[in-house]
## 1
Amino acid sequence: MTAERKAANDAATTFVSRHIGPSPRDVAAMLETVRAKSLEALMSETMPASIRQKAPLDLGPALSETEALAHMRELAAQNQTFTSLIGQGYSGTTLPAVIQRNILENPAWYTAYTPYQPEISQGRLEALFNFQAMICDLTGLDVANASLLDEGTAAAEAMALAERASQVKAKSFFVDAEVHPQTLAVLRTRAEPLGWSLIVGDPAIDLEKADVLGGLLQYPGSSGALRDPRAAIATLKAKGAFPENHPLSVGVRGSLADHFLNKCDLLFSIGSSLFPNRFSHAIPSPDKKTIIQCTVDTLDLNRSYETRHAVVGDAKLTLQALIAELSARGPKKNPGLVEEIRKGKEAFMAKFRPWMESNETPINPYRVLGDMMKALDPKNSFVTADSGNTRDQTSTVYEAQIPRGHLGWGNVSTLGFSLAGAVGAKLAFPDRQCVHVTGDAGVCYMMGNFEAIARYKIGITTLHINNGGYSGYGPGFWGGGHDPYTWKVSDHASACMANMAKSVGFYSEDVTKPAEVLPAIKRALDENAKGRPAFLEFICSHHPVHGGWVRPVAGGGH
Ligand SMILES: Cc1ncc(C[n+]2csc(CCOP(=O)(O)OP(=O)(O)O)c2C)c(N)n1
């Protein structure tokens, strides 16, 4: 061996011994303790020969520290760096040199402690503290927290901290639906054994209603959306009011919608194909209006009417941008318009209210809807209705006051969907009163599903408007072809749907008297609160009146 090689070997030996703990003396002492002659002998005694590698590893001579570093650099140079586009927290980062040098490469900061003992490592603690203090300074927040945990565990720690600090009784924690899925998974795992429930939703919509001990919002969201969290943060603090009933709302159908669709000179449509069919509005005098259409489907543009301005993009982000722009311009009040709408609404309701309060028998279907609105908490309920008169009448008079409080006001839907809609709503919002309105045909399409709902104890209420037939489907409506197959139903004496629901576990009632409508709905909702679904069958009149769709010539009617 040359002198040079020997020097390198010495360096290698010291390098190896710095990284492999036991010295030859230590090894000898340990062998003596276990009474083995050598390491080789120990291995033969403890390991079956069949799994022992016969030839030694072909590693070559040990490297010195300098050589090892050079080798590692060589290997690292083979890495190819790509831009990550998977999102969900795996985004690109920039490490300013000043941070790298003074924090990461600062020996006062990095110590031999493992990353799982950050609290012992004074240097790291100090860095975290500095970082927190900087975030407080920059944001003006009272507290900030930094940790060396992964994001999911940090979120779970924050939740636990919130629970310990919370003064409220609630054991639910709100989680922004925009958190990364891996974060949500860790939160779920942590919350479950502690008996806390997670309410996952859109902070702008769901947080105000949620009774929670705290909440986790993510910015930017997992989808990359940059949302303004101010309203959500204010909600958590103040449980303040969120505007629910807007004085500028003109409803979705009937004379008021008709009036303003005719009158408007600018029409801003969001998420609509603007395709007039049998079950939707047409746009009267489209050539006299500026049509702005926001959609994600470019085939909708210029489809039936000239789209003057196309906004191809997400409805939520578009609305946020619109709100930001209008807020920046400042409020512009038009009391005349507000008054016109208020009066129009009054006139519209003057037609329907008498039916909603009617004492006639058979019960007027609007009486059921009117009493339903009295029984429900409008800020904490979900209502939907099935195809047919039930949809047309419910969407005419029911005033949805909260986002996602009503589904299916418009276009044709598959009979039976309202039950699934109510079940879905109940699963998503367990604390809400979830009610669906259906006719006779609708119930028949749902039948197979009632048993499972009772079995799973899903507390929803079915309001069955039994008007003795499939309204509008008498002979001739769609041509003579389907008569008599689709429009006749058995009378109540021979086919009681409430009995059917009762037999599979629902709470159920037949209601024939108008005065019994409200008490029956209240009883049903009480049962729902105990986790039992309810079915109320109302023996109603055939009353095919509802607010119409807007038509350029015939008008909306009613
Ligand atoms: C699966 C399905 N089939 C057919 C239709 C067409 N359709 C819409 S309403 C309706 C009749 C509804 O009758 P009913 O449920 O008794 O309610 P009513 O109109 O009498 O209030 C039919 C057959 C549909 N929407 N879905």
Note: The chain is about 40% helix and 10% strand.
## 2
Amino acid sequence: MSKRIEINDLDIYYGDFKAVEGVTVDIEPRAVTAFIGPSGCGKSTVLRSLNRMHEVISGAWVDGEVLLDGANLYGPGVDPVNVRRQIGMVFQRPNPFPTMTIRENVLAGVLLNNRRMSKSDQDDLVERSLRGANLWNEVKDRLGVPGSGLSGGQQQRLCIARAIAVSPDVLLMDEPCSALDPISTLAIEDLIEELKTEYTIVIVTHNMQQASRVSDKTAFFNIAGTGKPGKLIEFDETAKIFSNPTVQATEDYVSGRFG
Ligand SMILES: Nc1ncnc2c1ncn2[C@@H]1O[C@H](COP(=O)(O)OP(=O)(O)OP(=O)(O)O)[C@@H](O)[C@H]1O
Ligand SMILES: [Mg+2]
């Protein structure tokens, strides 16, 4: 289920504006890779380019390669919808579908692809996905109530359940804890730790403690100034990035001297 992503010399544009330049990174399966760096350096932009969500924005495009276990996601004839099914995404603000129940939220993506799933298969999948997201015990007696009625941390775990219900190979998370309290944040971090045994995970975070707690590899991005493209400055084992980085700018950022 877990696959490798190789990014080769990727430039990412919004119309004429080159937001990110020359990114080359190898993202390992069954591991957590953190993207860190100051606001505007392109972390979310790079993340969205990994499942072809970037091009949903009008005028947005990329130049370069993103390989999923060797297959170019931007190759001719590749269906972006299929890419997004293989590479799921969890956003900063929990976004359960407000009119749907907890159960319907978990099944939303699956039923798009497979309308004729039997009731008992659906029940199994709902339980498995909610257990996978560490939410089952809290909601098993109220699967029929609206997902929007859950707490913020529960809603975020519901979104994770929805993302894993379609059996993706990769999970992308853009600041998944930034709207959550510390307890919910730790719950999500524990969950990420468990999920990495099955998935390739990429997480964007502004929280340095979080990056060092949850990730195996860290990519530090930076930007030279307004209007300049963001670049990958350093990519290494998380322990190395936080204790003994090679580049001065990385050192300055992780030690809180800027950003
Ligand atoms: N929809 C868009 N249209 C045009 N430019 C955009 C769009 N989204 C982002 N950008 C620009 O691309 C650059 C990178 O933005 P991005 O959101 O990827 O940064 P980020 O590192 O995720 O920042 P933050 O930490 O604040 O979330 C910025 O200059 C930003 O203004
Ligand atoms: Mg962002």
Note: The pocket of magnesium ion (ligand 2) is lined by residues 43-44, 204 (CB under 6 Å).
